[in-house]
Amino acid sequence: MAAPMRPTSLSLFFMLGTLSSSLLCSLISIEAAAAASSGGYQHAQEADRVSALPGQSSNPAMSQFSGYITVNQQNGRELFYWFFEAQTVPSQRPLLLWLNGGPGCSSIGYGAAVELGPLRVKRNGTGLEFNRYAWNQEANLLFLESPVGVGFSYTNTSSDLSKLDDGFVAEDAYNFLVNWFKRFPQYQTHDFYISGESYAGHYVPQLSELVYDRNRDGKNYYPHINFKGFIVGNPETEDYNDSKGLLEYAWSHTVVSNEVFRLASRVCDFRLFNWTDECVTVMSLLFQQYREIDIYNIYAPKCTSKPSSASSSPGVPSAAEAVERRGKGSLRAMGVLPGGYDPCYSAYAEEYFNRADVKKSLHADAFGSANRSWKVCNDSILRTYNFTVASVLPIYTKLINAGLKIWVYSGDADGRVPVIGTRYWVESLALPLRSQWRPWYHRGQVGGRFVEYEGVALVTVRGAGHLVPLNKPSEGLALINSYLSGRQLPTRR
Amino acid sequence: MAAPMRPTSLSLFFMLGTLSSSLLCSLISIEAAAAASSGGYQHAQEADRVSALPGQSSNPAMSQFSGYITVNQQNGRELFYWFFEAQTVPSQRPLLLWLNGGPGCSSIGYGAAVELGPLRVKRNGTGLEFNRYAWNQEANLLFLESPVGVGFSYTNTSSDLSKLDDGFVAEDAYNFLVNWFKRFPQYQTHDFYISGESYAGHYVPQLSELVYDRNRDGKNYYPHINFKGFIVGNPETEDYNDSKGLLEYAWSHTVVSNEVFRLASRVCDFRLFNWTDECVTVMSLLFQQYREIDIYNIYAPKCTSKPSSASSSPGVPSAAEAVERRGKGSLRAMGVLPGGYDPCYSAYAEEYFNRADVKKSLHADAFGSANRSWKVCNDSILRTYNFTVASVLPIYTKLINAGLKIWVYSGDADGRVPVIGTRYWVESLALPLRSQWRPWYHRGQVGGRFVEYEGVALVTVRGAGHLVPLNKPSEGLALINSYLSGRQLPTRR
After folding, report:
1. Rounded CA gap, B255 and B226, in Å?
2. MF terms per GO, please (chains A, B) (predicted)?
3. Based on CB atoms within 10 Å of each CB, which residue in A161, B147, B281, B329 is the most buried?
């Protein structure tokens, strides 16, 4: 469903075609606020309610909603969300937004249906089963497909797709939030947290900064969001340390030879935004090795069955592809992007979410997306995305100083955004140590380790890959419980 | 059963009390050879035959033998063995000796009954079950409890136990071999290989050198052994690189903090045979972290149940123990020794092998061992062992030049003798590269990686810990098949 007042606002936006996006967004807020004050939100909210989904197993009673939120009236940009109220006392639980990365990967396809959502796609895509480690035991849980072009989200202005970059994504996500709160004003005062993994390591801090800044804007253009902090998993954060960590991890975890490791260490200057040809050549040898295993979970079996569609293999490119793209000279240009995962999972979700009855039940059969096939990751978004931000560390510094609650977690069996690089950049923030590195426990075992600095905590999850809530669901739930509740992770067995 | 001619030779040895051990051993050979030529071996061999063991499951027909071989008549040193003929065409299969490490750990308790033997102890020690990945599919398989004091092996001269060191162990093992071949002369001409893991990383090359040297001795003191090569797993080899690797592995695998890693890197000179007090202090912090997980398999659950006997915990010492032993200033003095494993496994084996009916069936109820409780690892051996050899690399160089077939394998999830250190010392041999580092495949997945140098191959086993045949039995079998058959590991999926 689109935002309720679209006809009126559409004409308004046609008259204002040259306005800046920031002013536009404030106008969106104003129009949505009007809707809210008139009580129109109740109708829109109810229209988004999901009664039951095809093949949904019996599960605890749980309110869910899904549909579209307009983020740019003029260009016809609509972002799709799926929202689950907390399983118990939703009125007293925080609101948690979850974002997947890619760029181009769907928070429905990964976060909701494979990782931490309460309804998980069954093995062959025939239906949904209840996930007893769902994070909506802890929070009201909001999944957003972002940016436009991802999953069911769309734009009626195809040129938008060539303009996607981190700033664009953050602006649209911010507009989404503002208008989502208009449709669900009962959550406006809840504590609000942002979470995500992989390339959402960019999205999450960037959106956080926008929310923080606009909350402080004195001109009352922007509604106040009760924003408390963010948590990111295996987050792409700073190219230099992420790349250095990737190389060192591949060697210390037996993926590459001594020769490739030493050569890459010598010829690659990861401080460069674009790698030199020499560096690309040797790094492509490294990625050739990763083609043989699941880079996102290096000890797991690799899925060897074919994905349902040829293009739905968002993980590691072939060596040929990697070398072919070397001209662009960067990790990203080599197509080795985070956020994707195993094509086996993709295939199951793609079976399910492309069913007409499922689309209808989810209110996802809007004009702009009805005839497009839904994919877990959209490779064309990945290819055309404009990578312009090499580091989000300045945002960390700013938001740590602002007193937000910031946690970083890392599944330590991930080769793509490895814990080694994450340790490096967290340490590079040069924050005072609050509590030393030590284990945390889960069910009598070491769940991982954690270290607390003044302003940020780093938590590792032992034996988990890139998608922690998939690989270690019980540990993942314990982690988000600790984060949201403010309780320390268990330090005794 | 003791060697057949004991009464005669005993008196001989009493007369020769001051002879050197090497001359003694040649005399042992001579007396045993006399027994063989007289045909007496057949009786002794049959007396060692094991018909059936208590609680043994039905399994493929398989000849097995066990008993004692005298290695020093004068002092009454008897080594216990358990031998399984190959499951098929034993007359055409090579003979493979397996040694566990410790020092103090039993090749019966680990190798035979937990790892690669055809009869594995059941979970609660009630019986034995057939292991379908047993290495006697590939070879005639000989397990030796070495040195005296380990398992059922014993000495009647308790002062022997204070003299144990690598040289002592190798001499006794050599004497064992010579006399075992007298009892089983039908194997004298078979291709012979030596294998083992952990601290057997010392035993195996040292015994190999002895066999090699004595085969070449021109004086015909020593019978010829058709020795072809050796293979070692997660082998303690060279203190410097093993220790460096241990530290780097602990950091790169999220076990220790940045602070401990950097401090240890600064204050520890692993080239010293005994660490400085400063180094011991910081390394004890590292081992404190390893107390929380299974150092021998860092992603596995740690066994949290109590071992059957308080002293049967051969793995990681408590932090207090570690610090208490710091005076001795070495990794070994800290009690953190390889070879041991999880007390849960120990408990099962100790239940079983301490049964009187089991001892009787195995011919293990000899005078010297009957009243002693059998342990998977004997801590007192570990404590009193004289560590005098910091590196066995000179032996590698010598035996590589001799053209022996030498393989090293490494489960890459082992924190105790980690693959990082093994990579370092293998590279330090400075051998020409024969084939580059690349994956090998097993059942459509990457089993690990391997690299071949002129004279030595290094094979990793992905996701396996210290005890590869226990953690990855199918991969372990594929590995020993490749080694023994001379076929390359599969390089295609």
Report:
1. 45
2. serine-type carboxypeptidase activity
3. B147
Residue of A nearest to B256 (CA): A437
Smallest CA-to-CA distance from A453 within A412, A396, A414, A491 is with A396
Verify whether the Cβ–Cβ distance A253 to B412 is below 8 Å: yes
Q: Which domains does chain A have, with CATH numbers?
A: 6-233 (3.40.50.1820), 239-345 (no CATH), 399-485 (3.40.50.11320)
pLDDT of residue A222: 93
Instruction: Provide, as residue numbers in chain A, all residues whose Cβ is less than 8 Å from the Cβ of B292.
Output: 439, 446, 493
Q: Which residues pair with A410 in a beta bridge?
A: A460
Shortest alpha-carbon distance between residue B446 and chain A (Å): 7
Q: What is residue B274's predicted lDDT score, i.e. its pLDDT?
A: 86
Q: ipTM of this complex > 0.95? A: no
Distance from CA of B464 to the nearest CA of A (A): 9
Task: Please count the other Cβ atoms lying within 10 Å of the Cβ belonging to residue B175.
Answer: 25
Residues of A in contact with B419 (CB under 8 A): 254
Chain B residues closer than 8 Å to A257 by CB = 436-437, 451
Rounded to 10 degrees, the C-alpha dihedral B465/B469/B473/B474 comes to 100
Contact state of A252 with B252 under an 8 Å Cβ cutoff: yes
Burial of B72 (0-12, 13-18, 19+ CB in 10 A): buried
The answer to whether A304 contacts chain B (CB < 8 Å) is yes
Say which of B252, B438, B463 has its CB closest to residue A420.
B252
pLDDT in tens, B219-269: 888 999 999 999 999 999 999 999 999 999 999 999 999 999 999 999 999
| pLDDT (0 to 100) of residue A33 | 46
Q: What is the mean pLDDT of residues B94-123?
A: 93
Q: CA-to-CA distance for B78 and B250, rounded, in angstroms? A: 40
How high is the mean pLDDT of chain A? 85
- Which pLDDT tens digit goes with each residue over A234-258? 999 999 999 999 999 999 999 999 9
Find the mean pLDDT for residues A200-210: 98
Q: Are A82 and A64 in contact (CB under 8 A)?
A: yes
Mean pLDDT of A55-84: 91
